[in-house]
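INFO  loader      accepted 1 record
INFO  loader      residues=327
INFO  predictor   begin
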Amino acid sequence: MKVGIVSFAHMHAHSYANALQSIKGVEFAAIADDLPERGQAAADQYGVRYVGDYPALLAEDIDALIVCTENARHAEVVIAAAKANKHILCEKPIATTLADAQAMIVACRESGVLLQTAFPVRFHPAVQRVKRLLEQGRVGRILAMRGTNRGQNPGGWFVDPALSGGGAVLDHTVHVVDLMRWFTGSEVREVYAEIDTRFHDSLAVDDCGLLTLEFANGVIASHDPSWSRCASYPTWGDVTVEIIGTEGTLSLDVFRQHMLLHSDLSGHTTHENWGDDMDSLLVADFIRSVAERKASPSVTGEDGLRALEVALAAYESATSGQPVRIG
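INFO  predictor   done
INFO  writer      dumping tokens
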């Protein structure tokens, strides 16, 4: 199977590239990037061809694409890839508007290609274990949840609203909301949010927020998405979920598998992961879905749309000061 990557604008492109090169039977064929210097540098690093911008890659004899452009360009690239009959793994958030997300889903459905949203956290073994425990009824009926996704400000295009579509709330809500939807089997029906910029000066986007969610099945939840970690913090951030049920509780800390390294060479302390690589597990799942000609990927475009819907409702709520109903 031949796979290409469109853009190294998003830092996850590097972990996806490493994953492609580790999967038997997969050829990491080529890289497209609208910035030639960035694209060529990535091509040199991974020993593949740089072909120019994405139309050149779509003309190649490849089976699938991983799209890692700026958020606002996802729709353009995915729709073009669907028309070229390429299967697609698209970085999150799926898009910056619901209309774009829906257009992407329709284009892929009409062309008969897979559209998978890049929610790698679902594939982490600890998360998979939580899902199994919930399905076994080990905590009874879920009553409430609390989630966090707190990281560092990535800078660059992430803080340009024209390219990102939003700040920390968009960037760090979709992962945890996807987990909550998956765990409960229910959709968010109401969102209330407080959103602001508190940790960085002169940002054009938000860097923190607090969301309160109500699901259709009655579960209530809160979520803390932020770019609140300082530059010297030993890791980029966290993903945690606490689940309260009628028969018990579960606490999930996705990045707990690490060592704390105090280095005189670097002059600072870091978290060094020794555990599971969920990005590789995500890419392997996508490749397997394409190879087995599955009718639907494990994480669909609709999953991406529903998570985006919650993040955008949070912005609407913060602006109006009122809860926002979804659906």
